Amino acid sequence: MSRFYVGSEVGQLRKVLLHRPDLALRRLTPTNCEDLLFDDVLRIEKAGEEHLAFQQVLRKEGVEVLLLKDLLTETLANPAAKAWVLDRQINEYRYGPALAKEVRLFLENMDDTELASYLLGGLTVNELQSTSGSPTLGMLQQTDFILDPIPNHLFTRDTSCWVYGGVSVNPMAKAARKRETVHLRAIYKFHPLFQQSPFHTYYGDTDRNYDQATLEGGDVLVLGRGTVLIGMSERTTPQGVENLTRALFKAGQASKVIALQLPKARSCMHLDTVFTQMDVDCFTYYPDIMKGNNCWEMTPGDNGEIAFQQINDGFIKAISRALDLDTLRMVPTGGDVFEAEREQWNDANNVLAIRPGTVVTYERNVYTIENMQKAGIEVLTIPGEDLGRGRGGARCMSCPLERDDI
């Protein structure tokens, strides 16, 4: 029986979810890339080669790699799952009754592999080959999207995050990413792997408007020993943090949540773009952004409420206390002020731990890698000349499904 449990950031990584996008990246152009949250277009073949190299490093280290497209395809083989997914993406209010009926029928008649490709990669007007005469359709160009591509599925960390014995299926902040959640909800609800293993679902798995309570997994660090660190960033709000915290405490899966205020800046999109854990007592960080941050500790209160306490001695001390450590080893982004800014932009601090003291990162961040190695960290490198243009490193591109405690 499969086991889904993530007890830390650095315990032995055993199972991980990745996504190698293809069609979605082929749809990415200079005209639409900003709307789709990319800073640039990627070379498709090169990005694919680099992602395959990432997969190979993980497998060589004994990590089981599951791929999102495979899981979605297998999920869609269940007629109830297929109907559930389409119900949440095709409706009369989005398309108008005539076009909605036609799009639904077109997608229903695809085989599971083809349907997964279009759900992930987008569907254009000319691919639909409509005969409905719908005015909604008549106002679109042949190359306009009926279903937008979702290239950000590449960053599996954000859409769902496993915290101890359960998962949060996150209400995403940006419109370009909201459909991602439907796919992960469907996989966790219908795929046989997940049906065979009991787990908690903390947050996000209901059909509702979550309003301002958005949350993304790049801001959630499972420190271990019952503690979770969450950044309040460009994408994750205090409202989202409080709702997840309440659910964690109600399920008895965490005893403390540390919430950290971050600048609302593209360079600090998520906490893990400036701060990640490499060993039980060792973190990498970008100094320019990690100064003077407001911080709160949340613990279970009476009658299911949360007890809040603002921290005055900084989040590093709060982490030390939570992990019962006297000091932490802090490894800064490498190089001079210009080199450090470039390397942080290229995800130098966004590393994925395989086990305590061993991390995966982009090979291009040479100065930060040097700092890590000096601190005794084993660094496994992957190419990222094209993958890195999406502004996400090894941690962003991975959703751990099974990881040991510390």
Automatic annotation (TrEMBL):
GO terms for biological process: L-arginine deiminase pathway. GO terms for cellular component: cytoplasm. One of its GO terms (molecular function) is arginine deiminase activity. It catalyses: L-arginine + H2O = L-citrulline + NH4(+). The active site is at C396. The keyword DNA-binding does not apply. SUPFAM superfamilies: Pentein. It comes from the Bacteria. Its EC number is 3.5.3.6. Signal peptide: none annotated. It is found in: Cytoplasm. The keyword Cytoplasm applies. Pathway: Amino-acid degradation; L-arginine degradation via ADI pathway; carbamoyl phosphate from L-arginine: step 1/2. It is an enzyme of class 3 (hydrolase). Keywords: Arginine metabolism, Cytoplasm, Hydrolase. InterPro entries: Arg_deiminase. Pfam families: ADI (PF02274). Belongs to the arginine deiminase family. This is Arginine deiminase. It comes from Parendozoicomonas haliclonae. The gene is arcA_1.
